[in-house]
Amino acid sequence: MAATQKIMENSNLADKVKLKTANILDMPFNDNEFDLIVSSLVLHNIKPFEKRKVALANIARVQKQKGQLVIMDIGYETSKYVRILKELGYQNVNIVNAGYNGWWGTPMVPTFVITATK
Predict the structure, then answer these.
(1) Does residue 85 contact residue 52 with C-beta atoms inside 8 Å?
(2) What distance in Å separates the CA atoms of residue 114 and residue 70, rounded to the nearest whole number?
(3) Are 107 and 76 in contact (CB under 8 A)?
């Protein structure tokens, strides 16, 4: 968080952006609190897959209407997130392969980027 805070300060964003971190399965945030949510390489660590659905539902709960969502995650199960996000009311849900920049050492472990609007 310190490195990200420094980037925000150097980019003159410190007064416009707040960094917060919490357990995605038990977020202590209010409903409709965030305009933008970025999840970077988090969801694949949550086992079993059913708990990932809980994590996505928590994201939807704390995100404002018309808020933007960006999820970066590895593995082919990420395509299932698209269906779940649509069920949670997200629109303009898109998934793209991050290409060789997203490889974890080999093309066998690709990274996908999902964007959506609530």
Answers:
(1) no
(2) 6
(3) no
Residue of 73, 78, 74, 88 lying closest to 118 (CA atoms): 88
Residue-wise pLDDT for 84-113, tens only, equals 999 999 999 999 999 877 777 677 788 999
Rounded-to-5 percentages of helix, strand, coil across the chain: 35, 30, 40
94 pairs with which residues across the strands? 115
Buried b (16+ CB within 10 A) or exposed e, 9-22: eeeeeeeeeeeeee
Q: Are 32 and 62 in contact (CB under 8 A)?
A: yes
Closest to 29 measured CA to CA, from 16, 39, 20: 20
The DSSP letter of residue 84 is: H
Q: pTM of the prediction?
A: 0.86
Taking the C-alpha atoms of residue 103 and residue 98, their distance in angstroms, rounded to an integer, is: 8
CA torsion, ordered 49, 28, 13, 41, to nearest 10 deg: -20
